[in-house]
Amino acid sequence: MRDCSDAGARAGHLDEAVKTLASGQLVVLPTDTVYGIAADAFTPKAVSALLRAKGRGRQMPPPVLIGDVRTLDGLATEIPQAVRDLVTEFWPGPLTVILTAQPSLHWDLGETHGTVALRMPDDEVALALLRRTGPLAVSSANKTGQDSATTCADAAEQLGRAVKVYLDGGATPGPVPSTIVDATGAQMRIVREGALTAEELGSIAPELLPENQPAEVGDGPDEGDEAVGDEADGDGQGTPGEHEADQPSTDEPGTDEPGTEDTDTEDTDTEDTDTEETDTTGGATQP
User: Fold this and answer.
1) Of 39, 126, 182, 231, which residue has the fewest beta carbons closer than 10 angstroms?
2) What is the CA radius of gyration of the chain?
3) Residue ranges of region Disordered (predicted)?
4) Does the domain spanning 2-209 belong to CATH 1.10.3210.10?
5) C-alpha span between 143 and 285 (Å, rounded)
6) Tens-digit pLDDT string for the chain (287 aa)
């Protein structure tokens, strides 16, 4: 694992993470909720490796973390003014927003139904990486059905050699994931209440206050980011409101996919990790 607590050494660790992601392999990084597992959002084989590492399939694609609020318009369209008000107030932070994806984007996150879940995390290591790599597909760094990782060691124990580089930023504030808002319908709705409450969101966008929400709204998916992004805390895509909820994977392990090589040589905590385990119980959170 690469210790990013020392700002002087951090630049070299980020260099290695940038190269790893560019090669289609996976990186674990801290966020402001839980640890996330990241892949280049524009490399389909890398996204597939991410899903396979977690033990789930394309029906619950990962959310996308960004390092600058201005990236919002490059990835999404039909953005309501209320969403702009929310991200102005709560980004960077534990808010994931599901929007209509730009149709011109050349990516394959899974069965997104034309949507994308976006979040800007409030973590200096994550933001430093995102500002160098651009948008990353990020899910919570755990096996499907297992607890979200709030330390890098927790993530390494679960994901082992499926991840090439582990960026250790210390313990994260988790395990509470990001709050997910679906803005693809006629009315915005909260599909998962997490670190931000409906009252906090409603202070900026009154339609999100509990008394103004549709009666059918309940607990949203758990992905994590958030989400990383969810948030590395529980976030995702698919049918609006179902982004990044952990589901059993139907993908079979491959030998030529990214993310299957040996972990970073500095990571001594994952030598004995069983990387062939695939959890099929479902129900974890996301960044």
Assistant:
1) 182
2) 17
3) 205-287
4) no
5) 10
6) 999 999 889 999 999 999 999 999 999 999 999 999 999 999 999 999 999 999 998 988 999 999 999 999 999 999 999 999 999 999 999 999 999 999 999 899 998 999 999 999 999 999 999 999 999 999 999 999 999 999 999 999 999 999 999 999 999 999 999 999 999 999 999 999 999 999 999 999 999 999 999 876 444 333 444 344 343 434 444 333 344 433 323 333 333 333 334 444 444 343 333 333 333 333 333 57
Cis peptide before 94 (omega within 30 of 0): no
Q: Which of 54, 71, 73 is nearest to 62 (CA)?
A: 54
Tokens of 213: 């929400």
Strands (E) across the chain are located at: 2-3, 27-29, 36-40, 64-65, 76-77, 95-101, 115-119, 136-140, 165-168, 179-182, 189-192, 227, 232
